[in-house]
Amino acid sequence: MRKTFGTGSVWEQTLGYSRAVQVDNTLYISATAASGDDGIVGDDFYTQTQYILQKLGKVLADAGFAYEDVVQSKLYLTDISKWEEAGRAHGEVFGEIRPTLSLVHVLPFLDPNMLVEIELVARKAA
Length: 126
Known about the structure:
The protein is of the alpha+beta class. Helix content is 29%, strand content 33%. The protein has a single domain, classed as CATH 3.30.1330.40. It has a 6-stranded mixed sheet, covered by helices on one side. Strands 4-5 form a two-stranded antiparallel ribbon.
């Protein structure tokens, strides 16, 4: 079974991607930024990571998953020296769940106010 989830973002249609794709018991969530109705939310790594994880919680819930189902997390950071800020926010959500984690240093995103993007993979027991 393959099911796609979208947010209605113009970028999803323009670039031809889904916010998330569920294949059987696994949910793959695209890299997500701290973009809100009025632009980028937060101007530091901690705040942006917190906001993104809240957004991802909604994506998980909409697909019938929960944070506890997350098995892999990837944080893309424009300044790797700020990993502790992003890591603190990540740990507040996933401290007891403990998915795998990759911290990836990237060049600036298209919007220079974007500091963090996060991808998740979640899996439910069969």
